[in-house]
Specification:
Elements: E1 2-9, H1 11-22, H2 25-34, H3 39-52, E2 58-65, H4 73-85, H5 90-96, H6 101-113, E3 118-121, E4 127-130, E5 135-139
Antiparallel strand pairs: 1-2, 1-5, 3-4
Helix pairs in contact: 1-3, 2-3, 5-6
Amino acid sequence: MIITLIKEQTTKEYDKKMKEKYGSMEKLETLLEKTPKNILYADLENWKLLLENPEEPIRQEEIIITDKISIGENETQILNIIKNEKPKSIREIAIKIKKDPANITNKINLLAEEGLISFKKGLKNSKIPVLNYDKIEIAI
């Protein structure tokens, strides 16, 4: 199974993300002088190019090839809830789809292991599932 994770954003959103990550383009250039020939160069070049073309939409893709996961009705429901309803916990997802939390936890952990979702820390060490993509395409 080939899964393509797609994130679409505007140049403005990308610029904001880069400023959060590096502070400014000048700081990134200074950092690049200290650590030549690494991924920072690609970030700098992409940032410059996108600022030259501010109306250009940005489409980032990540491809996962796996046989470990099966995307069925439950997994689709889970992904839709995470994307559209922004639940604060795995338990909240289980309640919404009327399934046992332990069973849903296993499915969510598998989705996370495959890179389809991630977690951010919630209150009292809870894990909040997050879907960082706008679209998921599956080819079988």
